[in-house]
């Protein structure tokens, strides 16, 4: 068994960054001209809510998978009881803590984006319903209500 648990090559995960853009994920807010994960329907961006949610949950999944690798390395370092491994665990636990805080933050942003989209949909539906009250929903035929034998 390697002293670093074989996962020493695990690079720190930049939680909350849009894929390759280096920009933080903010659901429901535009992310510049790139139209990244944060471009929600309420922000006038091109991304629809399902795309924003899918992208956000994909990022969360990536962070959680990275956390799994960190936890495995921490466990292996603990079993090896080497001073270098135990010292490295302090840094790994700090990274794990940071990643967990970022996941919580991302879930908050996703929840907010969903709530804003639902509110916008309700407002749009109410406005459409108010506009429809001016006339009948379907035209009536000329013979409606008259008796023909």
From TrEMBL:
GO terms for cellular component: nucleus. It is found in: Nucleus. Keywords: Biological rhythms, Nucleus. Residues 48-124 form the Protein EARLY FLOWERING domain. GO terms for biological process: entrainment of circadian clock; positive regulation of circadian rhythm; rhythmic process. Its main location: nucleus. It comes from the Eukaryota. Residues 29-48, 125-149 are annotated as: Disordered. Belongs to the EARLY FLOWERING 4 family. This is Protein EARLY FLOWERING 4 domain-containing protein. The lineage of its organism: Eukaryota, Viridiplantae, Streptophyta, Embryophyta, Tracheophyta.
